[in-house]
Specification:
Rossmann fold, seven-stranded mixed beta sheet, alpha/beta, binds zinc ion
Length: 260
Amino acid sequence: MSEKRDLPRLLVISAHAADFCSRAGGVIIKYVKRGSPVRVVELSVGERGESDEVWLEQPGITLAQVQEIRKREAERAAAQMGAEIRFHNWLDHPLTMNEERLVALVEEIREMRADILLTHHHSDPLNVDHEYVAKAVTEACCLAQFQGLETRFPRTPSPALFFFEPTIPMTDLTGFKPNLYIDITDVFDLKMQALREFKSQSILPAAYERYALWRGSQAKTMSGNRNIQYAEAFEQYLPSVANEFPLSGRYYAISKYLNR
Ligand SMILES: [Zn+2]
């Protein structure tokens, strides 16, 4: 068996065009670099709710034309990151779910045999599409293991589910409580390069650079690793199981930190 088959398979389910890149772009690039299979699934391209710049700059543009622009942006970003991307073309706002869509999500998990799944947080009152997706993906993770649910692909174990940042900078108001920080300092420039492909959301690079610095500062304080500059934060849905306590998550007072 090749080594690559043993590497964890990462599935990222994104409500809108840029969500996967802005919130988890660093982690995606890290897994691609390690050789893991990484697939991004775009449920919509944010054509109605996250494409204001296109609508305002091109009066008279059609919905289909906006969709095409956003799709190309997402494809270019994914290509820069080295990730596979596929589109479901479900319209956004509202991005509501039904049984057919739920089965489609189960099939995404089963087809890839995903080990890790990244998606939106359950609470994101400023962008309810994200909440719809979070709830459906969580249910799909559970359904993926059931023999009784017949789909085009056989059942698989449920992947480990992690939620990425809700709408920034309002995450403090959503109940999002990150319990895993991943250092993305080494791939941060690549993430920004990919994020700049979303020309229809030109505020993203600056906004997410500020947030990555903030999360990086928290990660540095909790780890004592002064080399961390940028990080992405995640909330794991179910707790991890281990044989011993992790030694990460310490609090390093600044004076101690500076002396290390
Ligand atoms: Zn979104």
